[in-house]
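Narrative summary of target 7.
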Amino acid sequence: MQKRIPILACLTLLASALASSVVGQSDPDPNGVGAAAFAQNMALDHLYDIEAGVLASQRGTATDIKKMGAVLVRDAASDDRQLLLAVRGTYPRINLPGALDKFHQQKIDRLRTLQGRDFDREFIMQQMEVQSATVANLSSYSRLGMHANLKAYAATTLPDAQQQLKNASILNAGPLAMN
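Modeled conformation, tokenized:
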């Protein structure tokens, strides 16, 4: 357990660093993440969560993995609808991606190659990484973002993301994490 806490802290710091280095910003925010970059990152996370959740529901061997997959799909679809409403009418227009980027696609491809407990372990590790980054991005933008609609979106979806991270952490600390 003690080894997992520093890993989670490192993942959170890495997520913050990655978020602040995103290019293609349309508006400079105090934290270095523009509204467009934030919205696009969140849309990519939703696409990833939906695909990973479907895979977990189908391939997960543990009941908790299957349940988490179903919750991911449900929450990501809901969050994506909220994001679409938040970016409506922004100027300059924020275009959200309709497909995964290379980073997220590689994660999905990796999950597709695995079966059984190997799938479960990889799914948990990916969820720890992705949900840590999502929590960091939402937390940062809810405090420092410039666009009111996106700031409100970040604040309202943050509790769900924190719960997803908590669920992943519980699974990571359990028997599935053991070799």
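The longest helix spans residues 116-144.
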